[in-house]
Amino acid sequence: MLNCGSSTFADAEDYEAALPFDADLLLLQPGHFLSRLTWINLPRLGLLRGQESLSRVARVSLPLHRIFVIFPMDRASPLICDGVSVPWGDIMLRGPGERFWQRTAAASVWGAISLTRSCLVSYGRTLIGRSFSPPSYGQVLRLAAGDREDLLRLHSHAARLAETGPERLARPEIVRALEHDVIAALVTAIADADPRQGVTDGCHCCGLLVRLADVIATSPHHVPSIPQFCRATGVSERMLRTCCLNLLGISPARYISLRQRKHLRHAWQPTQEPAGKVEATGACRSHRGATATGRPPVWRPCMRA
Length: 305
Fold this sequence. Notes:
With 305 residues, the chain is an alpha+beta fold. It folds into two domains: 3-198, Jelly Rolls (Sandwich); 202-268, no CATH class. It has eight helices and 14 strands. The protein has a nine-stranded mixed sheet with strand order 13-12-9-6-11-4-3-1-14. A five-stranded antiparallel sheet has the order 2-5-10-7-8. Strand 3 and strand 4 form a beta hairpin. The chain is globular, with a radius of gyration of 20 Å. Residues 274-282 and 286-305 have low confidence and may be disordered. Residues 268-292 are annotated as: Disordered.
C-alpha cells in the first residue's frame, strides 16, 4: 500500500523518531533545530529527503533486507559517513542491517533510496543485458554527470509530489512510472559510476565508539574518565581522539558531554508521543509537526534544496 507524506519538526528527537531507520542524533552546533522529512514508500522502492538546519552526528542502524543509497542534495554540505566524505554528485551504498556514523558540518539536505538487493540485481540484469552486481557496501561512487542529473532530478520530482501534490501519487500509472524510472536511473548510475574511497578502514574506530556510547548509556551519571576508558579498552587516548575527530567531528570530551545531556534529558522527560511524528498510513498526506506549544513550527528557507 502506498504511503507518502512530508513533515516539519522543531525538535530533533521528534525528527529522529520519524526516520524509517534507527538513528541516534546529537546536534553539533547551538541554535534552534528545524527539519523537514519527506518520504514515499512505493511497492518496491522507498524514497527519502531530509532537510536539517544545524550540523549533527547520527549513529545509524539500517533495517534488515534493504539496501540504502544515500547522497547529499546540497552542493555546499557533504555527508560524512564513518569519516569518509560523500560530496554532492557522489552516492554511497549501505547494506541491510549495517550500522555506521553519519555527520554533517552545516545545514544540509540529503536524499536516500532503499530497495531490496534482489530488486536491484533483477533490474540491473534486465536493463544492462548481463549479470549485474552492486558494488561493495560502504563504497563511495562518483556518478557520471548525465546519470547524476537524471537521478537527482527524479528524486527531487518525487519529493515535490509528496510535498505539494500527494493526490497524484494515488494514481497507479504514475506510481508505476515513477518507480520504474527511479530504479532504472539508479541501476544506470551504479553501472557507469567510478568507485572511490570505501569505509572499511574506519571499522576499528566504529567499534571503539560503539563501546564508548554503550558505556555512557549504561551509566550516564558515572561515566569513566577518558584515561580509564582507554585503559579498559586497551587503546591510547590519542587513538580515541583521532577516531572521534574523524567519525564524529568532535573531541571525546565533547561527545561524552553531549551524550550525557541527551540521556539525562530523556530521564527527566515524561514518555509521550512525539509531536511531529506521523504514523504510517495508506494515504499520502502532508503534515506539519507541532511544537511544544501546540503551534506548527515556522519553516525558514535556510537551506538549499
